[in-house]
Each structure stands twice: as structure tokens, then as C-alpha cells.
Design brief:
The structure is a single chain. This protein has 15 helices and 26 strands. By secondary structure, it is of the alpha/beta class. Among the domains are: about 5-15 and about 25-180, 3-Layer(aba) Sandwich (Rossmann fold); about 405-505, 2-Layer Sandwich (GMP Synthetase, Chain A, domain 3), CATH 3.30.300.30. The strands form six sheets. It has an eight-stranded mixed sheet with strand order 2-1-11-10-12-13-14-15, with helices on both faces. Strands 4-3-5-6-7 form a five-stranded parallel sheet, sandwiched between helices. Helix 8 (about 210-225) links the parallel strand 10 (about 200-205) and strand 11. The longest helix is centred in the first third of the chain and has 17 residues, at about 30-45. The chain is globular.
Length: about 500
Amino acid sequence: MDSLPVVLEQTAALHAERPAIIFGDEVLSYGELFAAVERIAAGMASLGVGASDRVALLLPNCPQFTLSYLAASRLGAMAVPMNPILAPDEVEWIVSDSGAKMLVAVEVTAPLALAMGQRCDCVERVVVAGRDVPEGALDFRALMTGDPSTLPPPPDAEQIAVLQYTSGTTGRPKGAMLTHGNILSNALASIEAVAMTEEDVFLAVLPLFHIFGATVTLAIPIVLGAATVHLPRFEPLAVLQAIEQAGVTIFCGVPSMFAVLAAMKSPQGPKLPTLRLCISGGAALPLELTPIIEERYDTTLLEGYGPTEASPVISVNRTRESRKIGSVGPPLPGVEVEIRDDEGKEKKIGEIGEICARGPNIMRGYWHDEEKTAQTVRDGWLYTGDLGHVDEDGFIYIVDRKTDMIIVGGLNVYPREVEDVIRLLPGISDVAVVGECSKLRGERVCAWVELSESANVSEKEIVAHCFEHLARYKVPRTIRFMHELPRSATGKVLKRELRGRGLLLRE
């Protein structure tokens, strides 16, 4: 197994003229991408960045993200991608915890980056890409003057490529140490699973600072020599326009993106004839979205699954013909999955337990957290914290997060089961079910509901509907309406925030 810089060099040698990145009117070929990465890596090295150092990225989807990510990896340093809209305290935690030596930003994130340079002793240099580089920062273009002949040999597959901080849904974010081998093995297995080719054109609207976006729209295209269209944010009309104009063939997104596209009126003109495949991950895909998306956009929508710690893909449905709706597919080639009980024993087919995975994509561990690493990776098996079961064909079905399970009077309630029932009601845009403390029954079920525009669904209607389809103990005792559910950068509902809001409302 090679490393990302080695694969980039091989791809550039084979496909020097082929477009690598399309960003608005800007097109960067693989030859140009490789040459730029080499120069920027040399520029970083001249500023003291070396093997095992950390380079923090406070960047949206743009060419500078890919260039910085790959340049850091060329030196054997670790990229530390961050969500540009994180609060300052959240950014400070990640920068300080990782010990980042350099921080790369764009104009809009430059004030935050410079503030981190003052607040975090580890930061030696702030680099800003853009026309107006503020005082105290180095112009990104200055890195381009580096001399590639001074570069050391590229890292090997065992070197850590990225510290990928988790979304922090349970406490402080943790830095998952993902090696070049982890990422590339996951890319190669994903390519094999859904038959991607060098002729594909990828849409990078998933945030590249998240491992889902980084693997499927950065690493996979480089392995293939395929083109990637960068969009800095999800705007539905811009997405449809980019697909049509650039001839995008593969669009990977999260359920909230597909829900927005499903709710749109049918696009004018032809039905995006090049779009052959959509892949959903990052959260549970509501069952009703698949037929709507496939009919409206004349494409195939497949669901996959995987956490950050697995680089991230563990499983994916392969084709429209072989898939099972409601399942996240069978494991990727080379990845093993078992369903285990609390004692680590394998459960039988159809029995619910914790999803555990083993393979070359499993992280090295958590940065500076041996205790949490030992709890999460045992004898090479990743304990995902997700509950599910497998069928006789090896297809995986997600039930819920282990920590999200609600215990009512000693009986288990899986929030997704309740959420799926509530989503059947017309006018429900989205729903999140959480547990709340109850003096009488230990916990009770609470549903936070996001209504569609102009919908008028009452609490009584939702409760009555649940009584028709669920056992009494599973029916929400509290319904709360929200204009918009709190979400992570990848569209995952942040249930921890909802639990906290429930406590505040009761006080």
C-alpha cells in the first residue's frame, strides 16, 4: 500500500492533462496539482513543518484545501481539518489538543485563525489564501515558491495522514489518527464496491473537512485520476447547475441534502442525464427519499455507512438491483463486520447488538487518549457504538446509536423506530427522538419535530398516529416543535443539544 503523495505522483504521471479540480471557472489538471503540491510542501518545510507535525486547516471546499491537505501529507505531517464555522472555543480546543504548528485559512476565516495564533502557543505560523491577506499572516502564494528538490522522500502507508476530529456528540471532540493506508484502502474498496472509474466526475459539496467528503471526493478521485467539482457549500440550485454544466456522474451527500432536493419542484429542462449515482451516508436515510430522488432525477441512490474511525466507509449497497432498501449494504471488500453483545460475544443473525468492524481502514487510535482508544478498538475490532443487526445475506441494518437507546420501564426503545413512524405523517420535514428523565419510569420518549413549510400538524395528531403504529411504551410522551433541528456540518442531528434543551425547558 502506498501513501497519498505517492498515489498523486503516479496519477499525475499517467493523467497529467486530465482535470483534477474544477472550481468555478478555474480548472487544475493532475500535472498542475502535483507540481503545486510539491512546491507548497517545500514552502511549508522552509517554515519548519516536518514529519509528524500538525497543520490545521480552517478552510471551506476550495482548491487550497486539497493543496494544503496533500502538501502536509507530502511532508509526513498530519492534516487537522476543522469546520470553518466552529465557535472560537471549539477551534481553540482542536488546535491546542493537536498541537498544530501551522494554521491555513482563507480571508473569511482569517480573523479566527489569527486569534488562534494568539491564543494557542503551539501555532507558529498563520497562512491565509486570498486577495487581501491581513497583517500578521503569510500569503498562501508565498508557499508556492518552495523548491521541491529539497523535499524528503514521501511518507509510507503507516504514517498518520490526518487527525480527524469527531463531531463531539459525546463530550470533547477526539482526534482519530488515520493513516495513509487506512484512507487508501478505504478508497480502493469503495471504488470496487460501486464500480467507480476514471471517467467519473465527482461533486465535492460534502465538506472536505469531514472524513466522508475527504475520502469520497478527495482520495477516491486521486486514486482514479477522475475530476472533482468543488462547491463551497450546499445550495440546491447551485448543486443542480454544477451537475448539469460539469457533467457530474457521482454525487455523495447526507440525507438532509437529498431531502431538500426531493422537496424541490422538478428541475426545468432535461433530467441531469450524466448523474448515474448518488450515495448517502453520515446519518440514517429516510425510506421515502430513495424513490423520490430516483424518479425525479433519473438516477440511483444507494445508502452506505461508516464512522470517522473507519476512514469512514464500512458498508454500502452495491447496485439498484442488489440493494435492500432500509439496509446500509454488506461490508466493503476486505472489511469484516460482527454484531456483538455487551460482553463482546457475537450475536445471531437478526439479533440486535453493537456493530463491530475489522479491516485495513480502522484507525490507529485516538490522539493522546489511550484509555478511549482501548475502549473503542479491541483486538483490532472497532466498536462503533452503533446498534444494528445483519440478515442472512450479510446486509447491515442500523437501529440506533448505543448511547441514544431509551430505556422505558426496563424496556428498550430505539429512537429510529419511532422516528420512522412519525415521518410517515404528511407535513413532517424531520424528527429526532431522545430520552428524557422521568421520576416514575426512569426515562420517557420525547420527539423534537421539524415541520415542512406551511404544514399544520398538531401534537395530538402525532401522538395518535404513534399509538396506531407503536407499542404504548414507545409512544412519545412529549412533542416539541422546532423551526430547524440542530445539525452537525454533515447534516447529522445533534441529539445531545436536544437533550440539553429539554432539561432547560423543564427547569
